[in-house]
Amino acid sequence: MASNFFSAKAPSNKNVVKHTVDPSLQPWVEKYRPKTIDEVSAQEHTVAVLQKTLTSTNLPHMLFYGPPGTGKTSTILALARQLFGPDNFRNRVLELNASDERGISIVREKIKNFARQTPRAQAVASDGKTYPCPPYKIIILDEADSMTQDAQGALRRIMESYARITRFCLVCNYVTRIIEPLASRCSKFRFTPLDSESSSLRLSHIAQAEHVDINQPVIDALISTSSGDLRRAITYLQSASRLSSSSNPPTPILPADIQEIAGVVPNDVINDFAIVLGIEANAGMDVDEVPNQRRSGFEPMRKKVKFLMREGYSAAQIISQLHDFVVFHPTLNGRKKSVCALVFAEADKALCDGADEELWVLEVGLRVSKAVLS
Amino acid sequence: MSLWVDAFRPRTLDALHYHKGLSERLKSLAASGDFPHMLFYGPPGAGKKTRISCTLRQLFGPGAEKLKIDQRVFLSPSKRKLEINIVQSNYHIEITPSEAGNYDRVVIQELLKEIAQTQQVDLGAKQRFKVVIINEADSLSRDAQAALRRTMEKYMSNMRIILCANSTSRLIAPIKSRCLLMRVAAPNEEEIMAVLQSVARNAKFDLPPEAGNKIVEDCGGNLRKAILVLEALKMQSPDLTGSLNIAKPDWEVYCHKVADLIVSEQSPARVMEVRTKFYELLSHCIPPTVIMKTVAERVVDKVDEALKADIMHWAAFYEVRMRNGNKKIYHLEAWVVKVMSLYKHFIYNVDMSDFD
């Protein structure tokens, strides 16, 4: 009994801390989390299915997967809130994520204890609204793909034996890292990267609510740097507005600011590097310069790479931007592009293995220029 | 009597010599009360740490400079004891979790939770939050970075995290998207010169421009190295005139010797010779990557243009293998043999074409 008492207390304590946060200091990502599942941007299919479960109040075990920032955690939190209302939310929902210890022992103890307690009868909600408040609890396992195989294995039986009073919701980026027996117990929902229209709507809504003055180019820059990850776009927006409002006098946000915040290498730096590699930025525009740029030797390349490293740009970022530059280049032929793509792939693997950045940027430069000039 | 590097380190954001725009930004952010998590990245010796400590001073006043060093013991899941050194003041705490090796996740989880769940005790403090500085963030393991993700959002009211890294390549995207990125580029030549001049002024002597130029050339954008070299030179010849030779570190000279050996003769006997030299270097704890890079750069300087690209290619190739592999010496040796055979082939082919 005693252990039950404490484990029930622990999550509620955390929530109390969370609720005392001064709203002006809260990250916007938290502040503008959708309150109901209708508010969730895009993901029409998933929302439609979940809407139905709201009315029937019957919920399967669920597995949400998709790239970061597409609203997986937001959806389940909003759903839980709509099901239970603010009062019951705390003792009906257990949220565990990678920052909590999640070895096999936790699965055995904490989840089992939480799952074992039968939910209390429904109380009247304090805000006067009625909530369905179905007789089960929800356990959210956020970032479930970072759970160990053993811990996932331990979940299998628990999921079944407590299926009467608990529903599990696993949230992960890579569905392949969830072991098959767990995946087959859940109904899967795939979250797709956000299209630019719905991101743009959401961003301008937040900007309006926060009285931030942004224009269309800035929104475009936000969307292109975040590539479908709404959380990243919102964080960048918040950082940019912090910077602009804290400078004296307040300056408007520019697309270049967004790029700097996102750690993107400025375009002209990449263009310069490409010229050293022997690729002209815009074929036809500077035809007269082409002949003497053609013969790029080893020394200028080494100098350029040293310069890039001294400027502190990250190798992975340089390579990914150079990749975009080469792949979308108008005049290079397919064969050259494929050779370059091969080089980029190798370099990415090497960097993931922790290789030396300078050596590999130089390597990429040398091989790309060889491919282009051949 | 401390080193000049420490003695003349700027204490406030206003005193910083270069990247004025960045300093302005930091200052206005510190003043706004809405301070975000931050990630400082840039090459070594560019002044990341200096900027962080200046920002702290701006945030909390001089109290942030009263440091004490603590040793904390953490228990790994297998009940092994991990001892971590912690530098802290009343307002901030500084850790290098990579000291804990594989168990850095434990350190991050326990320490951050402990800090995050207690509030600022000092009522007179300027800010309500405390700051955690994580050094060498790019060597954090994946697990440890994943553990940071949610903590950074959840405990935003009590704590801000400042990460300090050489490159963002090895940080996972969720961490990067939660931080305000601050790129600290290495200072350019004029900026280094200006700093050296001001150090000289503070130490009350005149720095002749020739000596200054020589130091700037030698240090390769690393300001810490530049100031250390300046101090060493000053010790050698107090008036800093005449012919100065900047003493290269022993290992660098040794690496250059190895490179010369490779270029001058290519034979199995020479490989053995090089091998003993590599062993010598490794046993003096010179990181194998540094050895390979230094030797490769020297070799590249001495060979024909056509060979340079290939030599660097194989250096990059074997460097990755070295990271993945276990015994470093194999890969260093493999690279040397490869370079030698390339070189021989090259010479041989040239000879043949001459005969034709």
TrEMBL record, chain A:
Family note: Belongs to the activator 1 small subunits family.
Protein name, per record:
Replication factor C subunit 2
Which UniProt keyword terms apply here? ATP-binding, DNA replication, Nucleotide-binding, Nucleus
One MF annotation (Gene Ontology) recorded for this entry:
ATP hydrolysis activity
What are the GO BP annotations of this UniProt entry?
Answer: DNA repair; DNA strand elongation involved in DNA replication
Among SUPFAM superfamilies, the record links this protein to: P-loop containing nucleoside triphosphate hydrolases, post-AAA+ oligomerization domain-like
Where does the record place a coiled coil? none
Q: Name one GO cellular component term.
A: nucleus
Organism lineage: Eukaryota, Fungi, Dikarya, Basidiomycota, Agaricomycotina
Species this chain originates from? Cyclocybe aegerita (Black poplar mushroom)
Subcellular location, principal: nucleus
Question: Which SMART domains does the entry link to?
Answer: AAA
Subcellular location per UniProt equals: Nucleus
Query: Record's InterPro entries?
Result: AAA+_ATPase, ATPase_AAA_core, DNA_pol3_clamp-load_cplx_C, DNA_Rep/Repair_Clamp_Loader, P-loop_NTPase, Rep_factorC_C, RFC_lid
* Domain named AAA+ ATPase: residues: 58-195
From TrEMBL, chain B:
Q: Does the keyword rRNA processing apply?
A: no
Concerning Pfam families, the annotation shows: DNA_pol3_delta2, RCF1-5-like_lid, RFC_C
What are the recorded GO MF terms, alphabetically?
DNA binding; DNA clamp loader activity
Q: What is this protein called?
A: Replication factor C subunit 5
Family membership = Belongs to the activator 1 small subunits family.
Q: Where in the cell is it found?
A: Nucleus
Q: What species does this protein belong to?
A: Cyclocybe aegerita (Black poplar mushroom)
Gene Ontology process terms (BP): DNA repair; DNA strand elongation involved in DNA replication
Q: What is its main location?
A: nucleus
Annotated Gene Ontology cellular components are: Ctf18 RFC-like complex; DNA replication factor C complex; Elg1 RFC-like complex; Rad17 RFC-like complex
- Provide this UniProt record's keywords sorted from A to Z: DNA replication, Nucleus
- Domain (AAA+ ATPase) ranges: 34-187
Q: Does the keyword Nucleus apply?
A: yes
